[in-house]
Amino acid sequence: MMYAIEEINASPALLPNITLGYSIYDSCDIIPRGIEGVLWMVSGTDEVVLNYRCYAQAPLAAVIGDSASSVSIPMTNILGIYNYPQISYFSSAMSLANRHNFPTFFRTIPNDMIQSLGLAQLVKHFGWSWVGVLADEDDYGQGLSTIFKQEAQKLGICIEFLEKVPILYSESHTHRIVEVIKTSTAKVVVVFSWETYLYPIMMEIDKQNINEKIWIASEAWSTSSALSKNQVFTMLTGSVGFAIHRGEIPGFKKYLLGLHPLKSPNDIYLRIFWEEAFKCRWKNQDILPETENSTLSCTGKEELGKLENTFLDVSNLRMTYNTYNAVYAVAYALQNLYNCQPDKGLSLILHYMKNVHFRTWAGEEIYFDENGDPPALYDIVNWKPTTSGDIQYIKVGSYNSSAPPGKELVLIDSAILWPGEKKQVPLSVCSESCLPGWRKATRQGQPICCFDCIPCSEGEISNSTECLPCPDDQWPNERRDICPLGIVLAVLSIVISVVPKSILGLFLWYRHTPIVKANNRQLSYVLLCALTLCPLCSLIFIGKPSSASCILRQTMFAIIFALSVSCVLAKTIMVIIAFKASKPGSNLHRWVGSRLPNTIACLGTLIQAGICALWLGYAPPFPQNNMNSQVGKIILECNEGSSLAFWCMMGYMGILAIVSFVIAFLARKLPNSFNEAKFITFSMLVFVIVWLSFIPSYLSTRGKYTVAVEIFAILSSSAGLLGCIFFPKCYVILLKPERNTRDFLMGKGSSTNKKK
């Protein structure tokens, strides 16, 4: 505080021509002394005169302190009467955020409630759902543990035990707490306690060699030197906790090294410190009594730089940094007051304290919300062993309440060292998650985190919590975690149908190019339309059978596929006729054109339509309940009505495919201008193989798998026709446009290249 005031007084930018002074009163963390100090500061004299300010030379602007919330509360009750702002650097009690009761209280340490919420999120982040809690039996411990418990329940975290840490040491109580911890199944223990009260419990835990627990620390002990030094509590290695944000104060180390009792003879604290640090005694007996450790006379030549104690350690400024910011908050409020209303004196200082907003030299924002709280910023520290055997706390993350929702917690998981110097996050659950196909069954009288796993019934899947029935057109996979059959086939059907539609658009765009015009482009358009409908007709096979779906699915499939294969047959025949007609003296010129292929395509389709009409007139398909295929199940399926009609339909389509294959195979060695026969050969080969494989698969399956086999055959054969016939043309159109010329298609391009 003194350094911050001297720094402000030396600044030409902040409060120019105004000098800040200070008075210091030691409350000793005792409530009566805290009240006495406040009255002394308000009245300005040792003899307290209520409602009077007797020292008029320097008006009181604000009070910095106290550290303990129990002392700050009665202090702010008094200061609030006179509208004096109070800024604490360590009082974090949640009750102090009540603006109705404490309208003049501010603080540079976050509200404890934020810490409780953050620690619950920390536990959730590591996937722990089963924890124990230790909390002091005072307002600090009970307040934090209550908020933590409420937030933990919202996040699905269960608390196995919640024990109160005694403020007054009790051996029996301590032994009972340690026994609860020892026998608990929770691997994680969250502790809201001060190191003074926690120390006896840790001593007993160390004595009983309990090393397998993970300790989550509140800010009250997360940076405790008493628990981390002297190689005492090695079982705390791997602990993780929230710590007050650590900051840096430029020039502070130099300032500390420059302190000397002879330079500040009125600073009694510095003289006491000097005697304790150097184990010496000043000769002036009237100022200080002799201390037990004083063995030498203090000369003033002692060097602070040679000391090794926490006084000179500026690498871990936490509460100190809060004090530094508290002084600057008052200074900036005064600056705003004098800039806006210099004639008002300090009567409006409270208003400007509420609205103060500034940045530190490191760019951190300092301001107070409507409750007088600052933005909550915590460091997350991990206790790691040093080479000397002590424990050091290393920052591995942060918690910032002003960050966007869901991004408050930032952790470097890879930097955390867990007990046993392990890098993998330990597990702390009451019951491990159920495997796929199993559901949770809560144990009676126990928290929801404790459960047994029970297998799901046939036809159901699980999300590790409950069993869910699959839709009528779907069935669980082997892991029983998804119902893939119907949805996968439906999505696949739609995706495959989009491809020929896209190719049709491409052909229409390039309709005047030679490769599209070759071999009857109108027939190619019809074939692409048919191949668009082929995958879509498989959608009729999916779902609960009905009279309409049973009639439509086989007839639609038969007619659309007959149209597709008839178009392929027409294109194959036209390849041969075109080649024969190109020879001198051929009589096939009159067959060249669109009339013959259109006739072949129509005739092939009409024959299949006739077969289907006879089928529907004689014995149409109908829905039925199959109770014989599987014991204990009734399968809703379509009865084909007449097996003879079904196989006649399939046989006719097979004849068309085989004829197309044979003709295309014979024409495969025609010149380059007629090389579409090669692609038709491959397409028909794929088509025939798929449907020959379909026959034994169809006959050997039952129920929904029969439908799945037929859908797979429809999709596979459609994709085969599309890929073998049209993909090579798309390749030329998009990637090899130099081949999309009449000369190249007629074979002149290749011969010219040979001559060159």
Automatic annotation (TrEMBL):
Q: Where would you find the membrane-spanning parts of this chain?
A: 485-510, 522-543, 555-579, 600-618, 644-667, 679-699, 711-734
Which keywords accompany this UniProt record?
Cell membrane, G-protein coupled receptor, Glycoprotein, Membrane, Receptor, Signal, Transducer, Transmembrane, Transmembrane helix
Annotated GO molecular function terms are:
G protein-coupled receptor activity
The G-protein coupled receptors family 3 profile domain extends over 485-742
Membrane topology of the entry: Multi-pass membrane protein
The subcellular localization recorded is: Cell membrane
Q: What broad class describes the main subcellular location of this protein?
A: membrane
Pfam families, A to Z: 7tm_3, ANF_receptor, NCD3G
Against InterPro entries, the record matches this protein to:
ANF_lig-bd_rcpt, GPCR_3, GPCR_3_9-Cys_dom, GPCR_3_9-Cys_sf, GPCR_3_C, GPCR_3_Ca_sens_rcpt-rel, GPCR_3_CS, GPCR_3_vmron_rcpt_2
The record's annotation in SUPFAM superfamilies points to:
Periplasmic binding protein-like I
One GO cellular component assignment for this chain's record is:
plasma membrane
Fetch the PANTHER family from UniProt: C-FAMILY ODORANT RECEPTOR OLFCT1, CALCIUM-SENSING RECEPTOR-RELATED
Say which family it is in. Belongs to the G-protein coupled receptor 3 family.
Q: What is this protein called?
A: Vomeronasal type-2 receptor 26-like
